[in-house]
Q: What sequence folds into this?
């Protein structure tokens, strides 16, 4: 199979299959057409194990190993839409922090909307996998760091956007501290079964909090795998 076919997808990843997913996301409330087009064009089958590739364009989370999952497309679209909602068409956020690189799918979807993404992952094997996939897709505006996401990335702060792909039981102060004025933190918070997605906006020393709905994420764990 040629590289182009590998990336663009054939058969199970046909345009019809992807259109079906996009129509579902629209019906679930995703309105940003630029985000929907990005979901349509990012080859999600590259980010899952080959055995699960036939399910890549279902609106469902799938396992990626190490007790982690690739988020369902609806959640990726919702978080991306919430992060860039105030952004004028054609504009980019200057710098975004992603906590929890995982397989790199959310990173790939987010890439056109930021000049640069700083992405932190605590599991080294996932960093290596994400770097390979993002390289295949020629996504070059991402810096990956093997580190504890609870600490953020202080040397790169402030961030105009922070997106967290795992759920702490309460919002980490480190991440609030690293958010730029007017910037958005998109984060699921809570115990399993009662997590809610929040958009927190910095206004000086205060933080406005909007609740965006019930979600289900793996817990945000501190430390690294070594």
A:
């Amino acid at each position: 199979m040629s590289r182009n076919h590998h990336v663009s997808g054939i058969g199970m990843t046909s345009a019809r299959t992807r259109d079906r997913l996009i129509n579902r996301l629209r019906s679930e409330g995703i309105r940003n057409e630029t985000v929907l087009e990005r979901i349509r064009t990012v080859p999600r089958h590259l980010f899952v194990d080959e055995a699960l590739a036939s399910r890549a364009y279902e609106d469902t989370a799938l396992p990626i190993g190490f007790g982690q999952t690739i988020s369902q497309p609806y959640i990726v679209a919702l978080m991306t839409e919430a992060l860039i909602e105030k952004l004028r068409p054609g504009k980019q956020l200057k710098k975004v922090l992603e906590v929890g690189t995982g397989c790199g799918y959310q990173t790939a979807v987010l890439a056109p909307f930021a000049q640069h993404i700083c992405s932190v992952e605590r599991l080294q094997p996932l960093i290596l996998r994400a770097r390979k996939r993002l390289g295949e897709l020629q996504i070059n505006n991402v810096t990956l760091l093997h580190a504890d996401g609870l600490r953020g990335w202080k040397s790169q702060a402030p961030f105009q956007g922070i997106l967290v792909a795992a759920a702490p039981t309460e919002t980490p102060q480190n991440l609030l501290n690293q958010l730029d004025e007017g910037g958005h933190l998109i984060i699921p918070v809570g115990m399993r079964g009662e997590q809610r997605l929040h958009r927190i906006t910095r206004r000086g020393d205060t933080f406005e909090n909007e609740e965006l709905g019930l979600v289900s994420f793996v817990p945000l764990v501190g430390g690294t795998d070594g």
